[in-house]
Design a protein that fits this description.
single chain, about 525 residues, alpha/beta, Aldehyde Dehydrogenase, Chain A, domain 1, Aldehyde Dehydrogenase, Chain A, domain 2, 3 domains, seven-stranded mixed beta sheet, six-stranded mixed beta sheet, about 40% helix, binds adenosine-5'-diphosphate
């Protein structure tokens, strides 16, 4: 995929044949103003829908995606160059799975959330109302163009917001989301698409959405946060990663090798939670390495546009040409510093497909072990002790995901807890993302904010707190008038309520004193 950023013309090309697929003019200020106006106009009607009605609209999207899965996959694979199987599992299946789970889950999350009220506020009740924020701007990357565009937008819509979404200019899937929304009978203007590159993205921020949900690179995340700070727009940033996978000596070699292979090479390593570095216990290093290399050599890669139609092709192309340059640079840097290529290591001539690559003799002085490579490259390093491998795993500016492989689940749990990341899978990789009940997000330079799980909808809400007094004749204990006696009484209440040796009789007395104050009895 290539973007001609110098003008406002976006050119979308096949990462496999390198031919241009189509080109178009990026959306400018006039269209953006119109889109935001429409979003502001429709938002109150979305807010007025019941949770069930919103869910029913979202179910229409799911039905359409299921019925039209093959034509949607055609568009995804053409622009990303990913294998058909990858497009099926990580985009189509995932979209359906998330929607199906939130059919029920959203009902609970959108209800008023009752919370306890402490004794000192006796007689009152408290709850939280999840209310929409207004218009949400979703800015998406090129690696999962349909999933990343649909899922945050659906969560924001379920929360009662209108959504403006800008897909990546590298894989815009121009017209696809509109087709899904229109043909499925989704609510008009509730989710709208704006096309363009960073200038368009920047103009969208100037339109002052009520929240920005961004998935993309660290560098762009910084710029977006800086820009949003001018208007104090809240942001969720889902940024890059350098996931470590740690394999202990007691694993099933066959299963683990297969799992590592998928974790490293799915979507040609272009997931923010792909395995970017593998640490294997010294005692099984050779055995596991041999198996990984053997399996890697058997992987079928996309080498022509015809391969995008096949369901027996494993690893797709590198979607963005600028990313391919980074991958090649990381491999070159590693080789110069003493690494050895056991398989792969080069691109297929005339394409952006990079052969699945296994590298050894690597260390943390190399970019391949410390910077995000985002390609089908698996560098492997042996380790001796648990303490050492945890230190290496955490030796990264990123903190997105990771995995631990061991039959000793206590040890795996201990290591998972010690990893400074937002997600860890045990005896699998990236599997946390397959459970929409689990929150997703990172720490350190991988960003902040969580979505999916309970945060899915709440991240797009004003979680409004309400506390109700039934309008009795009582006054609150902390209201005027103040007096020395009342001050003394409040001290007694503090002792009764909070000292460790709290006696229930004291608590009862406190309740009675509060009652007296409330009724304005003289003190
Ligand atoms: P990647 O897709 O490689 O993660 P980026 O992080 O640069 O690349 O881009 C992710 C998304 O952010 C894309 O939709 C891109 O157009 C958009 N974008 C890039 N720069 C800006 C910017 N300055 N303001 C708003 N959006 C931007």
């Amino acid at each position: 995929m290539e973007t001609l950023a110098s003008s406002e013309t976006i050119s979308v090309t096949s990462p496999v044949s390198l031919r241009q697929l189509y080109a178009f003019e990026a959306d400018g200020r006039d269209r953006i103003d119109k889109i935001f106006q429409q979003a502001r106009n429709i938002q109150p009607s979305i807010e007025a829908l019941t949770a069930k009605e919103r869910i029913e609209y979202v179910m229409k999207i799911k039905d359409y995606v299921i019925a039209n899965r093959e034509s949607l996959i055609d568009r995804i694979v053409a622009e990303t160059g990913k294998s058909r199987f990858d497009a099926f599992t990580s985009e189509i299946f995932e979209i359906c799975d998330v929607i199906e789970i939130f059919k029920k889950k959203a009902l609970g999350l959108l209800k008023d959330q009752k919370v306890p009220t402490p004794l000192v506020l006796m007689g009152k009740k408290s709850y939280v109302i999840p209310q929409p924020l207004g218009v949400i701007l979703v800015i998406t990357p090129w690696n999962y163009p349909l999933y990343q565009t649909m899922i945050p937008s659906i969560f924001a819509f379920l929360a009662g917001n209108a959504v403006v979404v800008k897909p990546s200019e590298v894989t815009p899937l121009r017209g696809v989301v509109e087709e899904i929304l229109e043909k499925s009978g989704f609510l008009k203007d509730a989710i709208q698409i704006v096309y363009g590159g960073k200038e368009t993205g920047s103009m969208l921020i100037d339109s002052r959405p009520d929240k920005i949900h961004f998935t993309g690179s660290c560098a762009t995340g910084r710029k977006i946060m800086e820009h949003a700070s001018r208007y104090l727009i809240p942001v969720d940033l889902e940024l890059g990663g350098k996931d470590a996978s740690i394999v202990f000596d007691d694993v099933d070699i066959d299963r683990t090798a297969n799992g590592i292979l998928w974790g490293a090479f799915t979507t040609a390593g272009q997931s923010c939670t792909s395995i970017e570095r593998l640490y294997v216990h010294q005692s099984i290093y050779d055995k596991l390495l041999n198996e990984i290399v053997r399996l890697t050599q058997q992987l079928k890669t996309v080498s022509s546009e015809d391969d995008l139609q096949k369901t027996n092709v494993d690893v797709g192309a590198v979607t963005a040409s600028f990313q391919l340059r980074i991958i090649e640079e990381h491999v070159r840097d590693a080789i110069e510093k003493g690494a050895e290529i056991l398989c792969g290591g080069k691109r297929i001539e005339g394409t952006q497909t990079f052969m699945p690559t296994v590298l050894v003799n690597v260390n943390h002085s190399m970019k391949i072990m410390t910077e995000e490579t985002f390609g089908p490259v698996l560098p492997i390093m042996p380790f001796q002790t648990e303490e050492e491998v945890i230190r290496w795993a955490n030796d990264s500016p990123y903190g997105l995901g990771g995995s631990v492989w061991s039959k000793d689940l206590k040890r795996a749990d201990r290591v998972a807890r010690a990893m400074k990341t937002g997600n860890v899978s045990i005896n699998s990789h990236m599997i946390t993302e397959a459970n929409p009940h689990l929150p997703f997000g990172g720490v350190k330079e991988s960003g902040f904010g969580r979505y999916k799980g309970d945060f899915s909808i709440w991240t797009f809400c004003n979680m409004k707190s309400v506390l109700v007094d039934k309008q009795s004749s009582m006054i609150e204990a902390h209201w005027y008038p103040f007096s020395p006696t009342k001050y003394k009484l409040l001290n007694t209440i503090l002792d009764s309520l909070f000292v460790r040796s709290k006696k229930w009789l004291n608590v009862l007395q406190t309740a009675m004193q509060l009652d007296k104050i409330g009724r304005k009895e003289k003190y």
